[in-house]
# Entry
Amino acid sequence: MPSPRRVPLISSDPTHCRRSPCMFHGRIPEGAYYVGRKMPGLDASPYANPYKGDGAAERYRVKLLAEPALVEAAAYDIGDRDVACWCPVSADCHGDALLELIAALREAHDAEPWELA
# Structure
């Protein structure tokens, strides 16, 4: 089974951006779990990155390392699904950090991916 990955959101409008402020109108790829902030039509994820700017993904990784219960909850909620957010695929992203720490948690527990009961 392939590892979960971060996937870009699919824009419903090729320009996907209005004048200030920039507003996205996307939809989540089928089967993916949204890990972004509140956006038009999308509720904020409990795993959204609270940090902005340079180094935000790394600051989020430090937060996750300090809050193992958050990683455990994410592992349970996300399961084997891909995660979706607004970061460009080429950029550092908190979604990647989240997936890496979920994988490390599973490896440490030597467990199969969690499934909802």
